[in-house]
Amino acid sequence: MLHNKSFVKKTRAGKVMKQVREHYLRDDIYCGAPFCTVCDTSGARLSASPSTILIVDTNVVLNQIDLLENQAFDNIVVLSIVLEEVKNKNMAVYNRIRALCSNSTRKFFVFSNEYHRDTYIKEMSGETKNDRNDRAIRVATQWYQKHLGGTVKVLLITNDKENKRKASEEGIFAETVESYVKSLDQPDLLDLLVRPASEDVEMEEVEDLRPSKRKVIYLEHKPMSEITSGLHRGIYHQGKLRVNRYNPFEAYVGRESIGDEIVIYGRSNMNRAFDGDIVAAELLPQDQWQEVSSLSIAGEEDEDKDEDVHLAPNSADVAPRTIPQQGSSGQVNAVSSRPSGRIVGIIKRNWHSYCGSLDPMPMPAGSGGIAHALFVSKDRRIPKIRIQTRQLENLLDKRIIVAVDSWDRQSRYPSGHYVRTIGEIGDRDTESEVVLIENDINTRPFSSQVLACLPPLPWLVSSEDLSNPIRQDLRHLLVFSVDPPGCKDIDDALHCHALPNGNFEVGVRILRLNIADVTNFVHPGTPLDDEASQRGTSVYLVERRIDMLPKPLTEDICSLRSDVERLAFSVIWEMTAEADVISTRYTKSVIKSSAALSYVEAQARMDDSRLMDSITVDLRNMNSLAKKMRLRRIERGALTLASAEVKFQIDTETHDPLDIGMYQIREANQLVEEFMLAANVSVAQQILKSFPFCSLLRRHPTPTREMLEPLLQTAAAVGLHLDVSSSKALADSLDHAVGDDPYFNKLIRILATRCMSQAVYFCSADLSPPEYHHYGLAAPLYTHFTSPIRRYADVIVHRLLAASLGISKLPSVFQDRLQLTNIADNLNYRHRNAQYAGRASVELHTLIYFRKRPTDTEARIVKIRSNGFFVFVPKYGIEGPIYLTKAEKGSEKRSGEWYVDEQQQKIKKMDGSLSYSVLQTVQIHMEVVEPQPNRPKLQLTLI
Asked: What sequence ranges are listed for the domain PIN (predicted)?
């Protein structure tokens, strides 16, 4: 049956045109019930003999998705009109409901009511779209009641009073979510209910405030019409709010990939916005651009305070910071001011589920065993969340997940609801899952749609691949890879052989994601490509890896394993013996790796003078070239920085850490790194030359003087002068920063690293060429090309390179500048979260390791604060605070019996009997303690 839908549309020229769309209605759309005597039941998804079939409206799906995901909810019909509405309003919830509908273990069925002859309805005159959709839901429910002939109860679940009233008048069974959940006689399910914002009053009484006397804490959010107008006039600024991971009272609004950010100080100025929200911000008057910050070490107890006066350990978290300095008067003055503002409205919420534990509220349980509690997220950026629960006693020693429902302007904290329990606090598996959830790492299994994009196994290079004129057969070359031990997702392989004229030909055989050649297997817009784009990067934890791509690709088809033929994208240089590049070319290729070496194995080969086999000789030749390339980079001003990378030895059975120590960098590591850097620079030049307005590049902003101030202050305190006028000057200064302590130089380099902002991806059209510069590498252009198995940025760059060579067409996404910018922003977000997850995994396993191993060791003081100092433990790569006394509010200079000399970076007793200075060696004791129940932490104390 054909139904025509007509509507009028205004063109850009101002003309009004009538448009007609054909809407086909069918009578062969089935109900999904296996017991139906009318429909084809081959595709049935509901139970064979259910007592009730539920039909849910749009708001129930949007607001109660946590309930629907619970196993207690089944035999649910999701109407196509509901799916479409949810898709338009909340993509994250849409993905979750679609996952339920495609899960073969759940009884969810999608009914295409908009295309069924008996359930499609026409719009009525004067009827709003929302009313029309509600009517369509009621019509579909009524059809199910009649269609199934009363053999089963069909129940409409809606919290819309008007929709429920009309349903009852039309003879439809309808209930609210809460009444239905109560009928299930599972009280714990009530914890999952999302409560309307109006119910916040009940919880606010915890603060002994009567509803009529509740005071307004936050400014009212501006309506969208006013926000839109303000954005258009330049009064407001739109951007994503990013809260400082180390200081939850400091946040930024703006594009990280482009810069130009507004800093937001304090929870009141954040005005109920969460990290990740799209917000509208307004600038404060310029005389308010400076903010007082404390120079004390912020402890966990500080999270309960209202004052926004905490300075966390300095870090290159998300953007350049204003570094406070204490003047001779005892006041804390900002070295320089940055544009500061406040949030005036929320354009799009980023609320999701959060991991943490409960603090019980100091009040008796309410009616029906309901208790009130404050949820404390493991993520310090998230404020405490009020919840109600009927299972408080069972949850106090558990890590749980909580979702946010609302945040009233009269409430100090947002309100939310319990979602599920992860496990016991302190359990390794529980805490590992927390690390992944709080860093928004997608660990869901790859969907059937994604897996359907993979080629069948075993996969072999085909005759078509070998005969393809765009692909060069390089199987005859001696190719090998050098990677960390146990590496299975091998991205790159090398070869080097002497040419007759004495030059070396060096090729970096780089695999793209999925069999190296993305255009063969991962097409733009496919489920596999979309999934990789969203995940952004593989995530490496101490004991496991979360892949960006399915394992058949990462460990087999795409991995350049030894003794198998694989497809590659090759960069081939011709170099002189002095590492001067004569020519560079790119080609798709077929290779066959001869060996997959670890860094240790490669280093052992190079060091053993008795070995003269081809691989070892090639390694030595490449190492000779790499050293010259490295020296040339350093002469240009590239920085040789350092980080505290930790390596664990893990028990293969229990997965507990057996040993811990600093990761050792060998010449073999630097050899591989040098050719990877060179390839990335070469490819950046190639793609930008061909596509100046849509290339994905990577930049490292030059640090400001203010960012480097902590490093300069520390250096001055130990008698060092560092020239920071350029990267070259800083590199030379770091080379000369040596002392009697062999670890001194590395410590200075670690401190220098922490003063840098992070490198970020960006679209070339968003910035001017001088801003493309990569400060750390002293390179005018840089990108990521060498790890497409585990980074989606490299996949994009492979597509750009292939198009620049005429091998393939440039995908349509490269025509959309805004979409490219959004992709860059997501890649920066995913890359940063992967780093945080890796660090959190190290912290977790460090805690597990020292739980039964109290240890005395040596540490270096790296930061002086008014109530103590931070130390770095070289042996274990650990940093933490040592408290000398509790800092007194309003007194940064004097704290108990200690006096802080900011200029000399010392903290000393008032009687002069004891003092500590930055970079000083101290003996410490490390032990796992529980200052609060079920919250273990590694405590460092002076011996």
From this structure: 52-165
Q: Is the pTM here over 0.85, yes or no?
A: no
Q: List CB contacts of 496: < 8 A, sequence separation 6 or more.
A: 504, 505, 506, 507, 618, 621, 622, 625
Here the tokens at position 559 are: 């991995």
DSSP-derived secondary structure for 157-199 = E---HHHHHHHHHTT--EE-HHHHHHHTT-GGGGGGPPPPGGG
pLDDT confidence band for 444 (50 / 70 / 90): confident
Q: For 361, phi and psi rounded to 5 degrees?
A: -80, 145
Domain membership of residue 435 (yes or no) is no
The answer to the question of residue 213 being in a domain is no
pLDDT in tens, 688-728: 999 999 999 999 999 888 788 888 888 888 888 888 888 88
Spatial contact of 253 and 262, defined as CB atoms under 8 Å apart: yes
Domain boundary among 795, 813, 839: 839
Residue among 326, 236, 329, 340 nearest 279 (CA): 236
Both 620 and 716 in a single domain?
no
End position of a domain, from candidates 756, 776, 797: 756
Token readout for 656 is: 């507990």
Q: Which two tokens stand for residue 916?
A: 């500590």
- Apex 414 CA angle, 411 and 420, nearest 5: 150
Q: How many domains does the chain have?
A: 5
Q: Which residues pair with 791 in a beta bridge?
A: 537
**Residue 60 placed within a domain:** yes
Mean pLDDT of 862-879: 82
Determine, yes or no, domain membership for 846. Answer: no
Which residues, in sequence order, are bridge partners of residue 341? Answer: 283
Give the Cα separation of 268 and 264 in Å (integer): 9
Q: DSSP letters along 380-440, please?
A: TTSPPEEEEES-HHHHTTEEEEEEEEE--TT-SS-EEEEEEEEEETT-HHHHHHHHHHHTT
DSSP track, 76-145 = EEEEHHHHHHHHHH-HHHHHHHHHHHH-TTS-EEEE-GGGBTTT--PPPTT--HHHHHHHHHHHHHHHHH
Q: What residues pair up with 901 in beta bridges, in sequence order?
A: 906
Residue 816, token pair as written in the block: 């959309």
Q: Which domain holds residue 713?
A: 705-756
Q: What is the pLDDT of residues 749-792, one digit of tens each?
A: 888 888 888 899 999 999 999 999 999 999 999 999 999 999 99
Going by their DSSP bridges, the two strands 371-377 and 385-389 should be labelled as antiparallel
Amino acid in position 194 = V
Domain with 255 in it: what CATH number? 2.40.50.690
Task: Give the separation between CA 836 and CA 381, rounded to whole angstroms.
Answer: 13
β-pairing, 935-942 with 921-932? antiparallel
CB neighbours of residue 615 within 10 Å:
17
Report how far residue 245's alpha carbon sits from residue 91's, in angstroms, rounded to the nearest whole number.
Answer: 26
